[in-house]
Design a protein that fits this description.
- This protein folds into 3 domains: 2-63, RNA-binding S4 domain (Structural Genomics Hypothetical 15.5 Kd Protein In mrcA-pckA Intergenic Region, Chain A, Roll); 79-161, Pseudouridine synthase, CATH 3.30.2350; 168-268 and 294-302, Pseudouridine synthase (2-Layer Sandwich), CATH 3.30.2350.10.
- The chain has helices spanning 15-22, 28-36, 109-116, 149-160, 235-243, 291-302; strands spanning 2-7, 40-42, 45-46, 58-63, 79-83, 87-92, 140-146, 165-173, 180-189, 197-199, 206-217, 221-228, 267-275, 282-286.
- The relative contact order is 0.12.
- The strands form 2 sheets. Strands 5, 6, 7, 8, 9, 10, 11, 12, 13 and 14 form a 10-stranded mixed β-sheet that branches. It has a 4-stranded antiparallel β-sheet with strand order 1-4-2-3, with no helix packed on it.
- It is α+β, with helices and mostly antiparallel strands.
């Protein structure tokens, strides 16, 4: 275990808020566990999350040793839309986490891939074998998986060079006025909630560029296409909120009251275009909207 000692430079209403600034990589649940396990003391006494921090207080945090988890093969049905010696393209369902971590050690896409495929690249280690890029748990659609390290490096470079094109469809709250445009901001951790991402000043985030175009307008909603020019965490979801039109069903960045019985945001990675690492052939894949997404659009058409 590692122990870290801090002296508070200013007052904070709550100890957990103070710690979130000291440990930006920790989720809210991970911070709560530190307190629950008695690993946070203030002036020598075990602290609660709600404890007030005063300027000059001595705060000691005991960080438990990291545990290395190994993904295990699991016979989970997945939709592999394409496979060759270098890569596989998967149509991930909503609700499936891409790789293990943050309490998810089973039932992930990686667990399924280890069972279905004979080989995966090892560049990302035992936690994320084969994973070149990811999509959120409650986002559905296409992502590419590398089956060897050379393919992994090639595909990663395509993403960095923006020659790998990733296109999404999303249903947004409200009616978007403009037919299209480019959103250019910087995205980083939200200063109000470290679990969320947000548009932040340049010095506090990374450049995020998203191109969008309106596919169809409904009475109270807009179906939009989004093309990622960069790949920041929650980029489309944050940019949709930044537009003033959050994605329908988004539990984090959307509106609190939703009119549809959804289990997550209506965001689907429907098109993926890339170059085959060995042959140089240009490959393009499309995945139809999942049934729950199509059902919502059908209801809107009937109104």
């Amino acid at each position: 275990m590692e122990s870290k000692t801090f002296t508070a430079a200013e007052a904070y209403a709550r100890a957990d808020v103070y710690l979130s600034g000291l440990l930006p990589g920790y989720t809210r649940s991970a911070l709560k566990k530190l307190f629950d396990d008695g690993n946070v003391t203030v002036n020598g006494k075990v602290s609660k999350p709600s404890q007030e921090i005063r300027a000059g207080d001595s705060v000691v945090i005991v960080l438990p040793d990291a545990v290395e988890y190994f993904a295990k093969p699991e016979d989970i049905p997945i939709d592999i839309v394409y496979e060759d010696d270098d890569l596989a393209v998967v149509n991930k369902p909503q609700g499936m986490t891409v790789h293990i971590g943050n309490g998810n050690y089973e039932g992930t896409l990686v667990n399924a891939l280890l069972y279905k495929l004979k080989s995966l690249s090892g560049i990302n280690g035992v936690i994320r074998p084969g994973i070149v890029h990811r999509i959120d748990k409650d986002t559905s659609g296409l992502l590419v998986v590398a089956k060897n390290d050379a393919a992994h490096l090639n595909l990663s470079k395509q993403i960095a060079d923006k020659t790998c094109r990733r296109t999404y469809l999303a249903l947004l709250e409200g009616v978007v006025k403009d037919d299209g445009g480019v959103i250019t901001t910087y995205i980083g951790r939200s200063p109000q909630d470290r679990v969320k991402m947000a548009v932040v000043p340049p010095e506090k985030g990374k450049l995020a560029v998203t191109e969008y175009s309106v596919e169809k307008r409904y009475a109270e909603y807009t179906l939009c296409r989004f093309d990622l020019k960069t790949g920041r965490t929650h980029q489309i979801r944050v940019h949709a909120r930044y537009m003033g039109h959050p994605i329908v069903g988004d539990p984090v960045y959307g509106v609190k009251k939703q009119k549809f019985n959804l289990n997550g945001q209506l965001l689907h990675a429907y098109r993926l275009e890339l170059t085959q690492p060995t042959t140089g052939e240009r490959l393009c894949f499309e995945a139809p909207l999942p049934d729950y997404f199509a059902d919502v659009l059908n209801k809107l058409r009937q109104r």
